[in-house]
């Protein structure tokens, strides 16, 4: 039983790793990047400034290197800074995570109640 659980955990880790890379790669392959948005916001920006910003944000590196940097930071608990909300990503995610856990708990309780009820009803019908 323990071997089965360890096998499932390993499979889940591989699936999460592959999916995170696929999603990161698809986002990275989309046209434009944060620096392009900064360029359109400031028409006086110079080519040297653009090169410096690309280096600063790491968008001048190959996608596999950017993914490796992102993955190591994410595994250490650093999810970065949200430019949309102008605060750390964890500060944006934690309130939503609380609501998600509440919904997860309620749905699990409801599913268990339904499963137990169906099980009791089936035993009652089979017993006759």
Summary of the model, kept short:
The protein is built from five helices and two strands, in the order ααααββα. With about 130 residues, the protein is mainly alpha-helical.
Shape: elongated
Unreliable segments (pLDDT under 50, ≥5 consecutive)? none
Instruction: Tally the structural domains.
Output: 2
Tell me the radius of gyration.
23 Å
Terminal Cα span: 35 Å
Secondary structure tally, helices: 5
Order of helices and strands: HHHHEEH
DSSP, total strands: 2
Q: Report on the biggest sheet.
A: 2 strands, antiparallel
**Averaging pLDDT over every residue, what do you get?**
88
In helices, the fraction of residues equals over 70%
Strand percentage lies at: under 5%
Looking across the biggest beta sheet, what order are the strands in?
1-2
By secondary-structure content and strand pairing, the structural class works out as mainly alpha
Describe this protein's structure.
This protein is mainly α and 128 residues long. It has helices at 2-29, 34-41, 47-57, 63-75, 89-127; strands at 81-82, 87-88. The protein folds into two domains: 1-78, no CATH class; 85-128. 77% of the residues lie in helices and 3% in strands. It is elongated and about 80 Å long.
Key traits:
128 residues, mainly alpha, 2 strands, elongated
In terms of topology, how is this protein built?
Layout: H1 2-29, H2 34-41, H3 47-57, H4 63-75, E1 81-82, E2 87-88, H5 89-127
Antiparallel strand pairs: 1-2
